[in-house]
Structures are given as C-alpha cells and as structure tokens.
Amino acid sequence: MLRKHLLTLGLLALSGLAQAAETIDVYRDPNCGCCKAWISHLRDNGFTVNDHVEPNMSAVKQRLGVAPRLASCHTGVIDGKFVEGHVPAEQVRLLAGRNDLKGLAVPGMPMGSPGMEMGDHKDAYQVIGVTRDGKDSVVANY
Question: Which of 70, 101, 117, 140 qualifies as a cystine partner to 105, CB 3.0-4.6 A?
C-alpha cells in the first residue's frame, strides 16, 4: 500500500514538473494576427502562454540572440531558450530535452505552419536549431 502511495505521489510530482516546463513567454507586435494564432496553437497543445505585447521586437530578438537570418514576427522564450516564429508545438516541447540548443526558429512566415494556416495551401519549411556556439542545424522538416 505504501509503495502505491509513493508511486502516485511521484507521478503527481512529475506531472507538476511537466506543467511548469510548459509555460512560454511570447513577445509579439500589437497588430500581428498570425502571432495571436500561434499563441492559440500553443494553448491548444497544452502550453500556458504569457502574452507580451512588445513595440520593439528587434530589441527583443537582439537580446535573445536571434540572428536576423532566422527572424520571423514573434519570439517565444521557454526555459531560457528562444523560439522564433511559427515553430510547431511538438518541436517547442522537444526543445526542453535539447541541452545543445539555445533556440529554435522557423524563419519567415511559411504558409501552413502553425498560425499561418490558409486553407489547403502549405509551404515546405524547416525548423532550425541553433546551437550554443551559434551554428544552425535542421531539426525537423515539414
């Protein structure tokens, strides 16, 4: 019986840790509709989103180390790592386990990416991982 209670307590503790890791801060321009749609995508996938309206997105990106070649319209921060652009929630979730990366990016605004849905039109796009030493690598293709 004691073992069952300890197991239950352990599972509750782990679920609490998982919830804590699922909070993301999103910085966006006040007039951006696709940013709001990406926030909805994250919320629909279980994230708690702290939405920050930011008049100077360039300063936010520079502070977080987002290279201009990777820029998009909004920037998230989760566990001290950046999430630039329309990164799918599944990739944001995997970022926590990637200690080699300081962030993920979907450059530009590809049609069909989360928050950029427009009917059946979908562009191919990549999720780029940025290592701690600033090198890029493709972590997923969509």
Answer: 70
